[in-house]
Amino acid sequence: MPHALIAKYGEARLPRYTSYPTAPSFSAKIRPRDYAEDLAALSLADPVSLYVHIPFCEAMCWYCGCHTSITRKEGPVRDYLNLLGREIERVSEAAGGALPVSNIHFGGGTPTIISPVDFAALMAKLRQSFAVEAQATIAVEIDPRTLTQEMIAALGENGVNRASLGVQSFDITVQRAINRVQSIEQTGSAVSGLRATGVGSINFDLIYGLPHQTVQSCIQTVEASVEMRPDRFSVFGYAHVPSFKKHQRLIEEAALPDAAHRNDQALAIAEALLAAGYVAIGLDHFALPTDQLAIAARTGGLRRNFQGYTEDPCETLIGLGASAIGRLPSGYVQNEVALGRYADQLLSGNLATAKGYRFTGEDTLRARIIERLMCDFEVDLGALCREAGFESVQLLDGNAALAELIDDGVVSLDGDRIVVSQDARFMIRAVAAAFDAYLGAFGRTHSKAA
Questions:
Q1: How far is the first Cα of the chain from the last one, in angstroms, to the nearest whole number?
Q2: Which of 62, 147, 238, 266 would bridge 209 by S-S if both were Cys, CB 3.0 to 4.6 A apart?
Q3: Is the Cα dihedral 300, 306, 308, 313 positive or negative?
Q4: The domain containing residue 4 runs over which residues?
């Protein structure tokens, strides 16, 4: 892709579009009683997904953009799990029964900071309150540096069948610059232990755009990673937003690559993974051809949610835990972010809802357009508009951002079909943003588009 276009679009601060509308649109007008009504309206016949947030780590990684707190004590974690248990019960009660669950994802923070005994108790609570399907996908995010053999055993015993391991980079210079020193041996030990206990699907998270990172170090990280043959890779560009995440001020800004170098790193990682037999999935995921994510991408079943790309077909995602976001047919709901406020809500007998958003018909249409662009790099705008009762001209006329993308050769428009150029796929967030009716309305800083 021409460097002029990388410079033009790559420096833009844009959402990752794991949701639409994005979080800055959420309003405190959505309260616990509204969420309770939404839960009561759900059908007990339709499977849902659960996201369970564990907001604790033993040390802060300076690049981190997650909602997490640092602790090395069991007490705060155990207190939080007691509150989480209350929320699980309250959500189930509001839904009027045990909703069927086909997917559970434990995110953080570091979910494996929980003791093995407490993890078993949490899984038991979920199974008591929801009808967790026998073949449910149960995934856990893991920091290999702190994963114990006892925890590995607990994951296997409690039905976990997918694990996502944070790797980021194996370059020791980069690791020291982001306060996350993690050896290849630690990572390999975690992978072999998880596989031995029955966790059949392994994902690695890699990041480009980190301080002191180079194309060569990115390639070396991929080479070391593919030796362990994870089933999937998630490859993200580092989002440097020190005004929003104060610990990122510890990162040396002068050591961060510019948009052109970030693009070079992303391309190098992609080329190395493709050469190793992985297939590209959407913007930033890669998978072995036999993996369910790759199959979904080939068959038109790829979706987008808060964890990135997924093959999960559920229309409802219930968020549990502080800061967790859920998606229901009516809109989004987000729990209180601060642990104190989360506790206050639950101890007062409420759900933990802090804010949310109610969909309009146009929101739903734009969300479908953005999701298909992010997943397929093309969209039949006319077909989606007709299904929603809209005219495509309503989204095309006066769309200056889309017109500029067309003039620059980033996308082509054939009738009502929009297709992203093969060599411009790293700019897909800029294309999606052309259909975002709220972008820039809330003054929120996002990550760079490339």
A1: 12
A2: 238
A3: negative
A4: 1-14+360-450
Query: How many H-runs (helices) and E-runs (strands) does the chain carry?
Result: 16, 21
pLDDT tens digits, residue range 242-276?
888 899 999 999 999 988 899 899 999 999 999 99
Q: Based on the fold, state whether residues 10 and 24 are members of the same structural domain.
A: no
Question: What average pLDDT score do residues 35-60 get?
Answer: 96
Alpha-carbon distance of 265 to 237, in angstroms, equals 9
Question: pLDDT tens digit string along 92-149?
Answer: 999 999 999 999 999 999 999 999 999 999 999 999 999 999 999 999 999 999 999 9
Question: 198, 238 in Cβ contact below 8 A?
Answer: no
Whether residues 124 and 4 share a domain: the answer is no
Distance in angstroms (rounded) separating the CA atoms of residues 164 and 139: 7
440: its two tokens: 């820039």
Determine contact, residues 314/43, Cβ cutoff 8 Å: no
* Claim to verify: residue 193 and residue 243 sit in the same structural domain: yes
For residues 172 and 287, state if they share a domain. Answer: yes
Asked if pLDDT for residue 348 goes beyond 70, the answer is yes
Where does the pLDDT of residue 444 fall: very low under 50, low under 70, confident under 90, or very high at 90 and above?
A: very low
Domain count, the chain: 2
Last residue of a domain, one of 272, 299, 320: 320
| 33 shares its domain with 147 | yes
pLDDT tens per residue across span 322-336:
999 999 999 999 999
Contacts of 113 (CB under 8 A, 6+ apart): 54, 56, 57, 58, 71, 77, 146
Residue 426's pLDDT is 84
CA pair distance 85, 246, nearest whole angstrom:
31
